[in-house]
Amino acid sequence: GIDLGTANSLVYMPKQGIVLNEPSVVAVDVEDNRVLAVGHEAREMIGRTPEGLRAVKPIRDGVIADYRMTEALIKCLIRQVSPRLRFSGPECLISVPAAITSTEKRAVIEVAENVGGKHAYVAKEPVLAALGAGVSIEVPSGSMVVDIGGGTTEVGVVALGGIVSYTSARVAGDRLTEAIVEYLKKEYGLAVGEQTGETLKQELGSALPVEEETREIHGREAVSGLPKHVVISSEEITLAMQNELKEIVQTIKNVLQDTPPELASDIIEKGITVTGGGAQVRHIDDLIARSTGVPCSVAEEPVFCVSYGTGVMLQGLEKYKRALSQGK
Fold first, then answer.
1. 38 in any annotated domain
2. Is 49 inside any structural domain?
3. CA 107, 112, 116, 120 torsion: positive or negative?
């Protein structure tokens, strides 16, 4: 099972659990387009590559933006776990955004088959996230899952083994990070890299105001280009992310408004489950509950829910066939 994410790609193997968790980054030699590094090694090169090298993120907004680099990424993932396989040509199940087009879906299946997958299947992230969070999706009662990943926020209402209503918004963890980087540039004239923005989001980020914490950060003065450091507070990070958080909340409201009344009453009773890396932003569940009037909770191990969901589905392919698309 492969959770092919914008930020990270994870591999789940039945009876073994998550065996690989690598950043979705590929480093290439510009001159001959040769792949030099994948995953953690390639991620360390972001913002530090010398002339002639390029660090590429082949998955953008949850879908393939660079076919060849995605092929290299999946090939590397399968190669790294291949010593654990007792057979060649594994069955692969790959997560995709709920709003994926048939062309994008076909591209994912082709990549998996080209790198040696015996049979390739794709399943939509809200269904996988629900399964991984322990939500029963086969029952006639509705459940809502909000999966806040790196590139997209997937919101889906699942019942009877499939998705009843859903939407996929291109605002998620990466946009929150970008908002922090942009805030520092605008307010302090400080240019920082993506990794600094990500660290600030993880350490100081909160969807609602919290007791103030501060961090000293280093970057480059935008005008002079000289090194500069400033002290930033948790209140400022919360403020920097507000517009993006409002977009995420509005996406959830849109799906609730499109949900049939009977299922809506089920959701009010059960509450909303939040998964994905974005679920780690402090008080995101409180913000959603306060904004929608529906109880909300963060799943256990939210980052791994989609991966765990691929494992559940692989062990019951016949049972969940309504939620699957497959290749040849």
1. no
2. no
3. negative
